[in-house]
Amino acid sequence: MLKRFRLEEPESVKEASDLLGRHGESARIYAGGTELLLAMKEGLIHYERLVNIKKIRNLDQVKLDDGVIHIGALATHRQLACSDILQERLSAFVRMEQNVANIRVREVGTLGGNLSFAEPHADPGTLLLVLGSKLIAEKASSKREIPVEKFFVDAYETCLEEDEILTAVEAPLLPPRSSVAYLKFGYLERPSVGVALFLVLDGGGRSIADARVAVGCAGPRPKRVEEAEALLKGIGLKEASRAVEKAGEIAGHASEAISDLHGSKDYKEHIVQVLLKRAFHQALGQSQSGGKDQGGLRG
Amino acid sequence: MHFEREIEIKNSREKVWKFLWDVDRFITCVPGCREANTVEAGKSYTATMVEKVGPFRVEFPLQIEVVESQELSHIKARASGSDGKVGSRMKVELDVHLKDNGQATVLSLGLNVDILGKLATLGHSIIKRKADQAMEEFAQAIKNRLEGVS
Amino acid sequence: MAKVMSRRAEGQLIPISLTVNGALYEIEVEPNELLLDVIRDRLGLTGAKRSCDVQVCGACTLLLDGRPVSSCTLLAFEARDREVLTIEGLAAQNGKLHPLQEAFIEHGGFQCGFCTPGMILTAKTLLDENPNPTEEEIIQFMQGNICRCTGYKKIIESITAAAKKIKASSSRT
């Protein structure tokens, strides 16, 4: 059962941030509660104050503004899974959201909550890492943009300051001739390994102009793997489909996988490699069929 | 969980051995260790192990027992304690060997750590990672202390 | 109003009104009360079960404004001004069972019955959204509801049969 706590329901970001500033470690932002309440029910953490931010208006919108997709932090996974704008502009994100946790968690859990809690076994962070996204964090009197690469510091730890609230996630529109794939693997309730890939083909469509690779879930936080990306960039498709084997191996080692109940270190590193290969072929399949996605989310 | 480490310390065996038993100085090298007390010198001690992972905090008050000791060469110890708030127990078995390799003292550590209870299932991978880090920090700290750096 | 003080957080009572199975309730809840406990212990509706308690199994599923939620991990005050549907509210006022309930009985969609309220409520959400699901779509939708007894085959059959029943009766009206 949950220990007693005080509920605060501010109606503005400023008010919420002030509450956090005033109460420090004894207060925490509460939105969907799908991660927070679980930990509190287990007695692993306790907060004297939960600051419910769901009364703050307009933090759950999905908008397209001047070439940038803007996603409100309070948007639930379900809202994102059903978003027309996202389906049209970032369908891989929709597919990822459709498969987060389970239907009940998707109904209530928010993107912002998922990212802020920084549970290692989660999906959105890994995909955002290859989309060049920025996280918008606000406090009482200021706002800043955090590049997603800087956001995840460690397991359950982000770079958000004590009185900062994540209010939005932004991602630029995908360039032409690009494709995105996110594949995950897991047999426990949470994903054990997640791999995201972003590819841009050159004008002729026969070589890779840009590549971004991210791994998540296996290690304490999701991360880009520049070393793997370097192996794929600037080479022809045929060569790349051979190089992806090695890129996957590098990504596996970079994932900081550790042996635990989700599998041994070797196993997870191997799965990273498998998923990267599949993601590569899925992404290529997309670009070659003019953007229609093929294959399932689960690798 | 099993951990093994060999630490080369540029100092005499006598100095290292003495340091290991100097509770107040020794615990400054052990990450997360607070308030160590001697209950019976050479035989039993208490200490509190504190660790923080993101917002999660655990505190294990430990009872430590020296099972075996051979002057200048070997210590075997056991420790256990529970964190009631989190419903978990921690058990540690420690095996320490000291050897001379001609140029330095080699401190060989063998550690068996078992975490039981909720933390074990929910925090398994985090614990392992933290323990690896702690071993690394310990090795560095004890070298610094005994090689006259700090 | 009785106030219960605790050392750190003084008892805070939140007055809420919520509709459960069509009936309006006005109650006071503490912030830390879970919806499952309010539904079961205060309203006496024990169809929803506490099973895994970590929102994985679906046995505690309730419909909140028509959508499935894990009531074991939802704070009770979140149901304020909303409509809750429990398994007890599925049958019609005159006692006629919902086609899903009929189908689960006719097709053996349950054994011990523990997961069944959650299964049926989730299936209701599916059929409300997609009246003609393929087997693949049923499996995909019901993924978050776990059953230890049936092996799922009969559950899928029951849902398929219920869809047919609903289609048949709506084409008659």
Short description:
The complex is a heterotrimer of chains A (299), B (150) and C (173). Chain A is of the alpha+beta class and 299 residues long.
Q: How would you explain this protein's 3D organization?
A:
The complex is a heterotrimer of chains A (299), B (150) and C (173). Helices cover 36% and strands 24% of the residues of chain A. Chain A contains 12 helices and 14 strands. In chain A, a hairpin with a 6-residue loop joins strand 12 and strand 13. In chain A, helix 10 runs antiparallel to helix 11 and helix 11 runs antiparallel to helix 12. Chain A starts with 5 loop residues before the first strand and ends in an 11-residue tail after the last helix. The model of chain A is unreliable at 291-299 (pLDDT under 50). Chain B has helices spanning 13-21, 23-26, 118-146; strands spanning 2-9, 33-40, 44-53, 56-70, 74-83, 88-100, 105-117. Chain B has 150 residues and is α+β, with helices and mostly antiparallel strands. Chain C has 173 residues and is an alpha+beta fold.
Number of helices of chain B: 3
What's the total number of strands of chain A? 14
**What is the CA-atom radius of gyration of chain A, in angstroms?**
19 Å
Q: Average pLDDT of chain B, to the nearest integer?
A: 88
- Write the element-wise H/E pattern of chain B from the N-terminal end onward: EHHEEEEEEH
Largest sheet strand order of chain B: 1-7-6-5-4-3-2
- Helix % of chain B is 25-40%
Detail the poorly predicted runs of chain A.
291-299
Order of strands in the sheet with most strands of chain A: 4-5-10-6-7
Structural descriptors:
heterotrimer; A: 299 residues; alpha+beta; four-stranded antiparallel beta sheet; 14 strands; globular; disordered C terminus; C: 173 residues; 5 helices; 5 strands
Helices and strands in order:
The complex is a heterotrimer of chains A (299), B (150) and C (173).
Chain A: E1 6-8, H1 13-23, E2 27-30, H2 36-41, E3 49-52, E4 62-65, E5 68-72, H3 77-81, H4 84-89, H5 91-98, H6 103-108, H7 111-117, H8 124-129, E6 134-139, E7 142-147, H9 148-151, E8 152-154, E9 157-158, E10 165-172, E11 178-185, E12 193-201, E13 208-216, E14 223-224, H10 226-232, H11 237-254, H12 265-288
Parallel strand pairs in A: 1-3, 2-3
Antiparallel strand pairs in A: 4-5, 5-10, 6-7, 6-10, 8-9, 11-12, 12-13, 13-14
Chain B: E1 2-9, H1 13-21, H2 23-26, E2 33-40, E3 44-53, E4 56-70, E5 74-83, E6 88-100, E7 105-117, H3 118-146
Antiparallel strand pairs in B: 1-7, 2-3, 3-4, 4-5, 5-6, 6-7
Chain C: E1 14-20, E2 23-29, H1 35-42, E3 61-64, E4 67-70, E5 83-85, H2 99-106, H3 116-129, H4 135-141, H5 153-172
Parallel strand pairs in C: 1-5
Antiparallel strand pairs in C: 1-2, 3-4, 3-5
Helix pairs in contact in C: 2-5
